[in-house]
Amino acid sequence: MSFRAKHPDDLREKLQRKSEERDDKYTFEALSHEIGEVVTDLAGCRVVVYTVPDEERVSALVRRIFTLPDRVDAKPPPIRRPSGYQATHTLVLAPEVHDDTSIHGTICEVQVATVAAHLFNELEHDITYKKLGHLATPAEQRLLSSVERACKLADHLVEQLLDERARGKAHLTGIADAAELRLALERATARPLNGDFARLFTMLVLRGSKKAMGCSAACSWGSWSAPCSVALPAMLVGCSPSRMIAHRGNGEPMMADSCDG
Question: Is the pTM of this model over 0.70?
Answer without folding.
Answer: no
